[in-house]
Specification:
Blueprint (H helix, E strand, L loop, with lengths): L8 H17 L5 E2 L5 H25 L9 H20 L6 H27 L6 H26 L2 E2 L28 H4 L7
Parallel strand pairs: 1-2
Helix pairs in contact: 2-3, 2-4, 3-4, 3-5, 4-5
The chain binds zinc ion.
The site of zinc ion has 8 residues, from loops.
Length: 199
């Protein structure tokens, strides 16, 4: 919360920009940025690794049942199962600011691919010929795609630090009561679209 005494020209200009931003938000979803605590990031990494290893082990387990030239189990895991996990990883990072989300997403995607290869090899009892080439290419493509999707997402659905006062647009995060500290207008959590713990 900023300390405010007499309002400067700069402060009025900021308020004007905030009003424009509010007008813009009328047509856009109201998306508040979140931070993922370190412990939750570790849990996400573990979940990603577990999912990757389940898919890898399942694929290797099913391999003997597909003894023709086409290995459908590999197609399903490489084009459906792993991408589904990756889509979830990208989607669940969409409210984290890109600079914070990008390295986490890269690490999570890497843990999916590494755990996939390790568990596949353990269950099957060896590498396939070009496993390192294929999985590295797959990892780089999915990282690039994931980061671009995340970046575009936040470009078109900008994250905001709101909620803001409906009267003067002052940012209400940290407001000690249900009265705007800037203009004195009373507000309800319902009209801000938040619950009390959001402030
Ligand atoms: Zn206000």
């Amino acid at each position: 919360m900023r300390i405010h005494g007499s309002r400067s020209v700069a402060a009025r200009a900021t308020t004007s920009r905030q009003r424009q931003a509010t007008h813009f938000r009328c047509f856009m979803p109201y998306v508040r940025a979140i931070q993922i605590p370190v412990r939750q990031r570790i849990v996400r990494m573990v979940i990603a690794a577990v999912l990757g290893s389940i898919i890898g082990a399942g694929t290797a387990y099913l391999r003997p049942y597909f003894d023709g030239t086409v290995h459908y189990e590999s197609f399903v895991s490489l084009f459906i199962a792993i991408p589904a996990v990756m889509v979830w990883l990208v989607y669940s990072q969409r409210r984290v600011r890109w600079r914070a989300a990008a390295p986490c997403l890269a690490a999570e995607l890497a843990s999916v691919m590494v755990s996939f290869c390790v568990s596949w090899s353990l269950v099957y009892g060896g590498f396939w010929d070009d496993m390192i080439d294929v999985s590295t290419a797959y990892l780089l493509i999915s990282m690039a795609l994931g980061e671009v999707v995340l970046l575009m997402w936040q470009r078109f659905y900008p994250l905001t630090s709101g909620p803001h006062c409906p009267g003067c647009n002052y940012c209400l995060i940290g407001a000690p009561s249900d009265v705007c500290p800037e203009c004195g207008r009373a507000f309800t959590f319902h009209e801000l679209g938040v619950i009390q713990t959001d402030l």
